Amino acid sequence: MNFGQSVTTCIVKYFNFKDRASRSEFWWFQLFVMLVSLGFGLFGYLSFETYEAFTSFSDLATLITVIPIISVTARRLHDINKSGWQQLWILTVIGIIPLIVWWARDGSKESNQYGDFINFDDQTT
Question: How many domains does the chain have?
């Protein structure tokens, strides 16, 4: 899955917390969110020339994308056969470590309780 496919998929599945998301879908969307946040922040800074405007506009972008971030994170955890609720580990100091490991892990190659395996490598771009 490439950058554009990932962004499109995550926007279309805005409130979908049930399916699976591939590793590439998750990481491309995270990059998209960071770029959007940076773009909003730079727009705020260039418009108002204050750091507060940068952070305010950047926070606005994060607020707009918080639901799809939670959604794609839940679907990413489903891909490795984990509950989407385990993303709450991010609220602890040490919990970010297993989450990063899980996000980087290759998804299960067979169907699981969260859905069927989708091989994005076989799809044409």
Answer: 1
Q: What percent of the chain has pLDDT above 90?
A: 75
13/21 Cα distance (integer angstroms): 10
d(CA 65, CA 121): 27
In a domain, 125, yes or no: no
Q: How many CB atoms lie within 10 A of CB 95?
A: 14
Q: Does residue 122 form part of some domain?
A: no
pLDDT of the residue at 120 = 60
Is 124 domain-assigned?
no
Domain of residue 42: give its range. 3-116
Q: Does the predicted model carry a pTM greater than 0.70?
A: yes
Please give the pLDDT value at position 28: 95
